[in-house]
Amino acid sequence: MFCTRCGASIADNSVFCPSCGATVQRPPSAAQPVAGPPPIAGTPPVPPAPYGFTSVPVAPLPYASWGSRVLAYIIDMLIVLVLVIPLALIAGIMGMGGAMFHSLAPLGHVFGSGCCCALALFPVVQIAFGIYNRIYLPSIRGYSIGQGVAKIKLVDAFGNLLPQSTLWLRLLVQVLLGMVPVVGWLDLLWPLWDERRQTLHDKAVNSYVIDFPPAVAMP
Amino acid sequence: MKRGLAQLVTGLLMLTGLAAARVTMRADTKDVWLLGHRTAAACTFRQHFGVPCPNCGMSRSLILSMHGNLHEAMLLNPAGPLLIAGIIGAALLLLGGAASRNQTRVARWMLPSVLIYAVIYVAVLIGHWLFEIL
């Protein structure tokens, strides 16, 4: 069997992982063995662990390549850009109008206020779309719009979808790391040398990004 | 690309970038020079709102830190020396990770370090900013 925390191979009767020291997770009742994680298409099914221990399919998970993750990231960013461009155009037109009709008090104020409103909507649109695309969609189907195009999926160590609380924490860690120059890039580059191709914000919540065939994943 | 090679390249690029910035840039408490030419970049946030943004003084602070003027750098923006120390530390960790055979141990050690560092960095950045505007 494997440790649920670090993935190291451990003896079936172990209480603690000799590699990382984590307590071996057991099911609520040892008499009723827990079924193994749902099989992922294209990978061999993982046999249930003996003695009812929960095994982790560390080896069989088809971890997504760094290129697929970057593609998904770029697509999600482009969608934000597409949403923001109309706002930028509105803000620009309103700003120009405000400058042109500066002498006409009511009209100039209307244009000026419109420009400010459009600019204020920038972060609102980004945050709202981020919550929908990075929290809501992965919680119900496992992938954001960009991840769906790149045919990759966000799961836990057992291949299950992540709950919203975990997705919030994952996003929070990513935002925190992104606030530090260089560290944000390091976080995105981390799958290049990580054995499970996780980013640091993946590691923080023990999530994995895997490949999936569209026939299985499309609801 | 092999995992160790990716770490090695990233770590070396970070150190090379720092070295290149140190050679090509210099600063005092007022201005920044790039290849001997004074740059005239002003903070848009400060121009519009009349108060500094959290990153005000960061360019000068970073360059002064790279040249060893830590006291002046700390006065301009204390996040500057912290960022330089973080970049050097991360680069050395990556180079160490490239040489290490136990990648899992490196990753396990790296994650809490980076998280703690990020929290400290953001706290210093925001704390200094609040101190400046209040």
Concise synopsis of the structure shown:
The complex is a heterodimer of chains A (219) and B (134). By secondary structure, chain A is mainly α. Chain A has helices at residues 66-100, 105-140, 145-149, 164-178, 183-189, 200-205, 214-217; strands at 152-155, 208-211.
Explain what the structure shows.
The complex is a heterodimer of chains A (219) and B (134). Chain A is mainly alpha-helical and 219 residues long. Chain A contains seven helices and two strands. Chain A folds into two domains: 1-56, no CATH class; 66-217, no CATH class. A two-stranded antiparallel sheet of chain A has the order 1-2. In chain A, helix 1 (66-100) runs antiparallel to helix 2 (105-140), helix 2 crosses helix 4 and helix 4 crosses helix 5 (183-189). The radius of gyration of chain A is 23 Å and the shape is elongated. The relative contact order of chain A is 0.13. Helices cover 72% and strands 7% of the residues of chain B. Chain B has six helices and three strands; from the N terminus they run αβββααααα. The chains are: A mainly alpha (219), B mainly alpha (134). Chain A binds chain B through residues 6-8, 19-20, 173, 176-177, 179-183, 186-187, 189, 192-195, 200, 203-204, and chain B through 1, 3-4, 6-7, 10, 14, 83, 86-87, 90, 97-98, 103-104, 107-108, 110-111, 114-115, 117-119, 121-122, 125.
The total domain count of chain A is 2
| Overall 3D form of chain B | globular
**Which residue ranges of chain B are poorly predicted, with pLDDT under 50 across at least 5 consecutive positions?**
none
Question: Can you write the helix and strand succession of chain B as a string?
Answer: HEEEHHHHH
Salient structural properties:
heterodimer, A: mainly alpha, 2 domains, two-stranded antiparallel sheet, 4% strand, disordered C terminus, B: 134 residues, mainly alpha, globular
